[in-house]
């Protein structure tokens, strides 16, 4: 019984701390659970995960990729072009370096869901990509 109590208290203490980084490689690893693939060159990144027991996080990532990696990512995750262009960033503060323009194609998981704020960007001319992904925040 004593061991269960100690284990429970340790679990509670460990789960009460947020995870936060402004290191692009660490942000990618926290988000994906693996090291970045060689097909992408990380440029900037930020990741925040709340201390709650449920998974709540926010990722900002800027990287360069050849088109195949990004296209495979879009297909694997079932993303679609964002043609509605709703106010996806109204609920968060974007980092100063998170700058897209009209040259970017914007993808989303479900553009008709007003609570789906995650967006995935690629500039097909230069291969610069941005990911803003949020879950539960």
What does this structure look like?
This protein is an alpha+beta fold and 137 residues long. It has one domain (18-135). Helices cover 23% and strands 29% of the residues. It has three helices and seven strands. The protein has helices at residues 2-14, 24-32, 67-76; strands spanning 19-21, 40-49, 57-65, 80-81, 105-108, 119-122, 128-135. A seven-stranded antiparallel sheet has the order 1-2-3-7-6-5-4. The N and C termini lie far apart (36 Å).
Key features of this structure:
23% helix, 29% strand, 137 residues, alpha+beta, 7-stranded antiparallel sheet
Order of helices and strands: HEHEEHEEEE
| Main sheet properties | 7 strands, antiparallel
Roughly how much helix do the residues carry, as a percent range? Answer: 10-25%
Q: What radius of gyration results from the CA coordinates?
A: 17 Å
Q: What's the helix count?
A: 3
Assign an overall shape: globular
What value does the average pLDDT take?
85
Q: How many angstroms separate the termini?
A: 36 Å
Query: How many domains make up the 3D coordinates?
Result: 1
How do the helices and strands line up, and which of them pair or pack?
Blueprint: H1 2-14, E1 19-21, H2 24-32, E2 40-49, E3 57-65, H3 67-76, E4 80-81, E5 105-108, E6 119-122, E7 128-135
Short description:
The chain has 137 residues and is α+β, with helices and mostly antiparallel strands. It has helices at residues 2-14, 24-32, 67-76; strands spanning 19-21, 40-49, 57-65, 80-81, 105-108, 119-122, 128-135.
């Amino acid at each position: 019984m004593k061991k269960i109590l100690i284990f429970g208290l340790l679990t509670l203490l460990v789960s009460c701390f947020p995870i936060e980084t402004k290191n692009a490689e660490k942000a990618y690893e926290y988000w994906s659970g693996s090291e970045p693939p060689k097909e992408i060159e990380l440029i900037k990144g930020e990741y925040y995960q709340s201390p709650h027991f449920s998974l709540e996080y926010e990722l900002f990532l800027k990287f360069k990729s050849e088109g195949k990696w990004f296209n495979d990512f879009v297909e694997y995750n079932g993303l679609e072009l964002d043609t509605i262009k709703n106010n996806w960033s109204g609920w968060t503060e974007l980092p100063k370096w998170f700058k897209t323009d009209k040259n970017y194609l914007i993808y989303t998981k479900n553009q008709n869901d007003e609570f789906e704020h995650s967006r995935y960007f690629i500039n097909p001319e230069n291969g610069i990509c941005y990911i803003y992904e949020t879950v539960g925040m």
